[in-house]
Amino acid sequence: MPxxxxxxxxxxxxxxxxxxxxxxxxxxxxxxxxxxxxxxxGAGKTTTIRILLDLxxxxxxxxxxxxxxxxxxxxxxxxxxxYLPGEPGFYGDMTGESTLDLLGxxxxxRVDPARRRALLDRLEFHAGDLRRRMREYSTGMKxxxxxxxxxxxxxxxxxxxxxxxxxxxxxxxxxxDLVVDARRRGRTIFMSSHVLPEVERVCDRIGLLRGGExxxxxxxxEVRALAGRRVIVRFxxxxxPPRLPPGCELLDSGPRLxxxxxxxxxxxxxxxxxxxxxxxxxxxxxxxxxxxxTYYASETRA
Amino acid sequence: MIRxxxxxxxxxxxxIRAIAVAIAVxxxxxxxxxxxxxVVLERDQAFGALSSLVPDFMRSIAxxxxxxxxxxxxxxxxxxxxxxVLASLLGLGIAIATEPAAEIESRFDDLTLxxxxxxxxxxxxxxxxxxxxxxxxxxxxxxxTFTGLACCTPSTVQRPPVALFRALxxxxxxxxxxxxxxxxxxxxxxxxRAVAGSLAGVGALAxxxxxxxxxxxxPISRISRLSPFHYFEPMPLVAGSPLDVRNVGILFTVGVFxxxxxxxxxxxxxL
Lengths: 302, 271
Known about the structure:
The structure holds 2 protein chains of 2 kinds. By secondary structure, chain A is of the alpha/beta class. In chain A, 34% of the residues lie in helices and 29% in strands. Chain A has 11 helices and 14 strands. In chain A, a hairpin with a 2-residue loop joins strand 12 (248-254) and strand 13 (257-262). The radius of gyration of chain A is 23 Å and the shape is elongated. Chain B is mostly helical. Chain B has one domain. The two termini of chain B are 19 Å apart. The interface between A and B is medium-sized, with 26 and 23 residues.
């Protein structure tokens, strides 16, 4: 099954009357990768996820999970998915244990009690907590229970909507470990998130939605390369303003300082610097957050 | 589909069992007490006096069934058509049937229907619960009636036939089924239980009043045929008429249409 994408979205659109929530979306998620699905509120992330899970029907286009159409073969597609909703609708009068049992039974796949116990332990969820009614749970505890319910059947694809919302930093770490461990075992993770450092840390590739359209799809290093590196050069003596090679942009300059943005290889600029009295060279790799902020900002302006 | 339906039904039953058991106990107890009331009235020979309290215009509206109602059998049968009993069972039926909307509202569907569970299982679950719970309550009411009659009926009185209570229970069950199914169709189309419950509840109230007006005012007697309550006629049964299978058939058919509509709407909608 290596050639079949875990998720294939093909010219997918969803309209609500005059509002277009998702517009002609096309992308694949490869097996065994962690794909970060980004965008501001209302960009269409949750609508896309709900189409994948057949909770919402597309206006046009199609989506498939491991080759099974999400609408025509919906049951087969959902049988391979573990899902963590953004706002899990747990019943407050049920205990955590009965909730996990119900969601395990209804899925039809056998849940290994040892695996569930291990997940609960990793998220520091104690047996006593499981026996309490969910109305007594904090937001973080509900989120942890949601994570366990998504992971407990060990499905090949995990769809996680804002998975670390409400988790404390320690639990966020535990969650990242779970995700990385799942990928190591060949599972695919498709997660939406607002937390860009988290995406940068765990995701292999990202897709950025803006106004229902996919405006960026790349690996994290590719995204960084798109933005270019910032190179600050200090000289021991005054130098003339440079005639820069292609791919280099002068952001600021002084008699003994150049502040440059370099897209692509650093080779041409190091060649230029070789004949100059360089005192110090500082190469800064941009954070994903800085790059994506520019996309977000351009949406706000739009 | 069957496994998922049964898992959902079991889960939903656990959530509603307390109120269902409470209503069952109250209605069965009411039915038992009615038999005791009938015994006391019979012993005191009070049916004639009770009948004389009814105004003439009411007699002319109710016709011979009024005489039948003011009898031992009529009092015993009261629980099968008393408006409060009817409202209790309709309310319970609507509560059971509107669970699909409640699950959308609470986002519980996001947990269940993202597993390999067909949407039809949600509707099938509600139908199973509606039939099983309302049916069980009717059986308990009948059991309470028979228990009361068996232990206390004076030897001078002829016990009402079993067929009467069977016919009354079927008639009551049919009207609750009909409104429950219509509530299910409403619940399949909306996102909030309160909206579905209000639609069904106000619809039932309007239907009840329309039928009532149709019975007392000729100009709207034809329109009143649109009300399901037009086909719920317990008084002729008490007066000794056989169960009108056509009436039950109409209520059952409307209910089936409601369930089919619920299934189609819920299957096609966005959740």
